Amino acid sequence: MKIPLLMTPGPTYIHEEVRRAMSVEITNPDLDENFFEFYKDTCDKLKQLLHTGNDVLILSGEGILGLEAACASLIGPGDRVLCIDNGIFGKGFGDFAKMYGGEVVYFKSDYRKGINTKSLSEFLEKDHHFKLATLVHCETPSGITNPVKEICPLLKQYGILSVVDSVSAIGGEPLETDEWAMDIVLGGSQKCLSAPPGLTFLSISPRAWKAMLDRKTPIIGFYCNLSHWRNWYEEKWFPYTQPISDIYALSAAVDRLLHEENYIQRHQKLAQSVRTALLEAGLELYPVDSFSNTVTTVFVPEGTTFKDIYDEMHRTHNIMIAGAFDFLKDQVFRIGHMGENCREEKLYITLKALNQTLEKVGVQLKGKLHESFVKETE
Ligand SMILES: *Cc1c(COP(=O)(O)O)cnc(C)c1O
Q1: DSSP 8-class letter at 365
Q2: How many Å separate Cα 291 from the centre of its chain?
Q3: Where are the alpha helices (DSSP H) in the chain?
Q4: Share of the chain residues as helix, strand and coil, in percent rounded to the nearest 5
Q5: Which of 1, 56, 315, 365 lies in the 20 to 30 Å Cα band around 131?
Q6: All residues at 6 or more sequence positions from 259 whose CB lies less than 8 Å from its CB, including other chains
Q7: Cβ distance 104 to 81 under 8 Å?
């Protein structure tokens, strides 16, 4: 199999150190005390990344599991849930809330802009009897980062728990779980952390724990029931056998980030340079504000198609970029610059190939993408 340069917004390139960690011989994770310590150490490192003193758990399943587990554990029949929706993931969160009996109310907002906290605040003045609110930190399909720093404290003022999907933001966007009063923050292994796909992790505030433990109806399901994890460390008990090799890899991947002083600045700076290069060449970005540090979404230029761009990038240049789905299908292409993909040399190669690709499919560019990029990063 010919491995492409993976420039998609997840999964991302996995560094050799992380792949090596994954191949280390295993022990029995249900019996070996050392593994309980290792799991705890890995959670402690994730706490550092999330800037939180809250409990952190690692669950065996991709990001969607974290999202579903938070909904399953917090939402019972008739609970009012505010779904903050300015994108495909934001809207989809509401479907999970409904699955567990939630009465979902949507706060809908322009899909090409970040959430406007002032409008949300006006909305909440009129209606704020919600048990929790769901929101997405970075809307990966559109490339928009929402102001969770403002939204979560606002929700807290009304006693509304915040459940934040930060899967494509953790490790690439500023994140202060405790300072910003975020109740549940969930992430995945395969985005900015650049670990293999397969794990989700989440931080749980004391208020969120209390809401789970005090609920009147039982939590439906087993795999998504976070309350089973309440005393895992004291009791040295996991609800199921842990994916030990995946956790070895996750731990090594988090080490790589934590050993780097300025990973957020790296993402900010290179994302800015990518956007400048695209704009200088005359291309149009999907977002009009609140641009993501981790993914850039670009309209497919007139006169060509997503498929033509994708195929040429893949076949001729062996680089994989992404399209999007739902209503954005075939409308945009996306360049992931998250984690190990957020490197100057990889983005240079990608933009140079994209430049050649667009010229080949007949798009007139006003400048050379890779040259503008280099100038910007200097
Ligand atoms: C990647 C991602 C997830 C996980 O979803 P998959 O489609 O299974 O990869 C969840 N939320 C967001 C915002 C994501 O970017």
Answers
A1: P
A2: 14
A3: 16-22, 33-50, 63-74, 88-99, 117-126, 148-157, 206-213, 232-235, 244-258, 263-280, 306-317, 344-360, 369-377
A4: 45, 15, 40
A5: 56
A6: none
A7: yes
Q: How far does CA 7 lie from the centroid of its chain?
A: 15
DSSP alpha helices (H): ranges in 100-184? 117-126, 148-157
Residue 140 Cα to ligand 1 middle (Å): 8
Tokens of residue 116, six digits: 């406007």
* pLDDT of res. 2: 86
- Summarised one tens digit per residue, pLDDT across range 246-270 is 999 999 999 999 999 899 999 999 9
Going from the C-alpha of 226 to that of each of 35, 102, 212, 267, 275, the distances in angstroms are: 20, 17, 8, 32, 40
Both tokens of 60, joined, read 């065996």
| Cα–Cα distance for residue pair 223/239, rounded to 1 Å | 8
Residue 259 CA, ligand 1 centroid: distance in Å? 26
Q: What is the pTM of this model?
A: 0.98
pLDDT at 1 over 80: no
Q: What's the 89 CA to ligand 1 centre distance in angstroms? A: 8
Instruction: Look at phi and psi of residue 116 and say left if phi exceeds 0, alpha if psi is from -120 to 50, else beta.
Output: beta
Length of the chain: 378
| 3-state secondary structure (DSSP) of residue 327 | helix
Contacts of 108 (CB under 8 A, 6+ apart): 85, 86
- Which residue's CA is minimally distant from atom 8 of ligand 1? 64
Give exposure, 211-245, as e/b (b: 16+ Cβ within 10 Å): bbeebeeebeeeebbbebbeebeeeeebeeebbbb
Domains of the chain: 5-9+261-377 (3.90.1150.10), 16-258 (3.40.640.10)
Q: State the distance from the centre of ligand 1 to the C-alpha of 63, rounded, in angstroms.
A: 6
Question: What is the Cα–Cα distance from 40 to 57, expressed in whole angstroms?
Answer: 9
Which residue's alpha carbon is at the smallest distance from atom 3 of ligand 1? 63
